[in-house]
């Protein structure tokens, strides 16, 4: 049998045809999709909030910066007395009965707040600044009691300080010794961005260890205020949130939930669990729940729940109906 050959024109005879520009259609579709994506990005995207640095802090709230720097120099901040892994203090050491893993680990990220945050950076900035070098020598030569007297007076003075239009902080006159010079240079160093760089200095080729700048920031009130404004603090389930209106890390709900309920958020506590050791207790609870999840196939009773409450049979009801029909056809007992 011979197959007849029909040309294209004959094949499409009588079929209405219209011109079609594929490239034009693709271009229009791409522009429409791009516009839709940009619109959703503008409405739903997470804002690009600038990183908080010592430089931005010292410019936005210089009084809080100087108050924190004075506390670091006096060794009275949380980080200065934190405990392991930073130092031998005890302000933030957590334990539960005989369990004290924080103490067991010891100091392995040593931080000396007065030296690391204030004295050492200022020492590196003394090049060409004889006034700063003299103030450092005077401060180091003074007794501990005299240093604390200067620091206490200066901290009190900061309570009545004013900020000039150029960002300088004017502290009322008082017996501050060399502390006023040290703090003035500290503010200048921070505002220039030099303090951020000096606190990042390490023996590694890549300077990516932000431990010291972050600890310094955490001792102040500025970053805490920003976190409160963005609903990122613990009482707002902050670990789950994102800046702006964009959804955050919803899968962390179980972890942060424990911080919102007693005894984890209670000062009095229960069974030795309270706000004093919340982090340790929450980690312990999560480890216990993870172990239970892994051991479900081996725990009598727990592993039998699917047989007692056969929800899976409801979900896969068509599959089990087919199995029953097949069993009936073969003369077997239905599963």
List keywords for this structure.
17 helices, two-stranded antiparallel ribbon, about 0% strand, about 325 residues
Q: Layout of SSEs?
A:
Blueprint: H1 8-11, H2 22-44, H3 54-60, H4 62-74, H5 101-105, H6 113-124, H7 130-141, H8 144-158, E1 162-163, E2 169-170, H9 179-191, H10 194-200, H11 211-219, H12 222-229, H13 253-257, H14 278-294, H15 305-308, H16 311-315, H17 317-330
Antiparallel strand pairs: 1-2
Summarize the structure.
This protein has helices spanning 8-11, 22-44, 54-60, 62-74, 101-105, 113-124, 130-141, 144-158, 179-191, 194-200, 211-219, 222-229, 253-257, 278-294, 305-308, 311-315, 317-330; strands at 162-163, 169-170. The mean pLDDT is 91. It contains 17 helices and 2 strands.
Tell me about this structure.
The protein is mainly alpha-helical and 335 residues long. Among the domains are: 8-40, no CATH class; 54-226, no CATH class; 303-330. The protein has helices spanning 8-11, 22-44, 54-60, 62-74, 101-105, 113-124, 130-141, 144-158, 179-191, 194-200, 211-219, 222-229, 253-257, 278-294, 305-308, 311-315, 317-330, and strands at residues 162-163, 169-170. A hairpin with a 5-residue loop joins strand 1 (162-163) and strand 2. The chain is flat. The two termini are 58 Å apart. 19% of the residues are buried. The mean pLDDT is 91.
Poorly predicted spans: none
The percentage of residues in β strands lies in under 5%
| Largest sheet strand order | 1-2
**Cα gyration radius (Å):** 33 Å
Query: Termini, distance in Å?
Result: 58 Å
Q: What is the makeup of the main sheet?
A: 2 strands, antiparallel
Shape: flat
Could you spell the SSE succession in H and E letters?
Answer: HHHHHHHHEEHHHHHHHHH
Mean pLDDT: 91
């Amino acid at each position: 049998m011979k197959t007849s050959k029909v040309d294209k024109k004959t094949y499409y005879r009588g079929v209405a045809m219209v011109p079609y520009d594929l490239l034009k259609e693709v271009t229009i579709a791409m522009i429409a999709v791009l516009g839709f994506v940009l619109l959703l990005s503008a409405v739903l995207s997470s804002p690009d909030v600038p990183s908080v640095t010592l430089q931005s802090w010292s410019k936005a709230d210089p009084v809080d910066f100087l108050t924190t720097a004075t506390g670091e120099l006096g060794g009275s901040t949380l980080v200065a007395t934190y405990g392991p892994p930073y130092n031998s203090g005890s302000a933030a050491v957590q334990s539960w009965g005989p369990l004290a893993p924080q103490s067991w680990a010891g100091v392995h990220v040593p931080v000396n707040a007065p030296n690391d945050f204030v004295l050492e950076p200022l020492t590196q900035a003394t090049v060409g600044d004889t006034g700063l070098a003299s103030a450092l020598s005077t401060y180091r030569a003074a007794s501990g009691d005299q240093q604390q007297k200067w620091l206490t007076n200066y901290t009190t003075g900061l309570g009545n300080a004013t900020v000039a239009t150029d960002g300088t902080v004017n502290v009322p006159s008082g017996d501050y010794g060399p502390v006023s010079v040290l703090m003035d240079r500290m503010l200048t160093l921070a505002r220039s961005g030099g303090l951020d760089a000096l606190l990042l200095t390490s023996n590694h080729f890549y300077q990516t260890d932000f431990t010291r700048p972050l600890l310094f920031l955490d001792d102040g009130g500025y970053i805490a205020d920003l976190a409160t404004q963005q609903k990122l603090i613990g009482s707002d389930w902050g670990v789950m949130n994102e800046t702006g209106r964009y959804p955050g890390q919803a899968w962390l709900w179980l972890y942060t939930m424990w911080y919102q309920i007693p005894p984890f958020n209670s000062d009095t506590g229960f069974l030795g669990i309270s706000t004093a050791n919340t982090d340790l207790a929450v980690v312990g609870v999560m480890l216990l729940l993870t172990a239970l999840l892994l051991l479900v196939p081996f725990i009598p009773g727990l592993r039998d729940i699917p047989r007692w409450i056969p929800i899976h049979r409801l979900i896969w009801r068509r599959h089990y109906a087919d199995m029953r029909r097949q069993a009936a056809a073969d003369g077997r007992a239905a599963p």
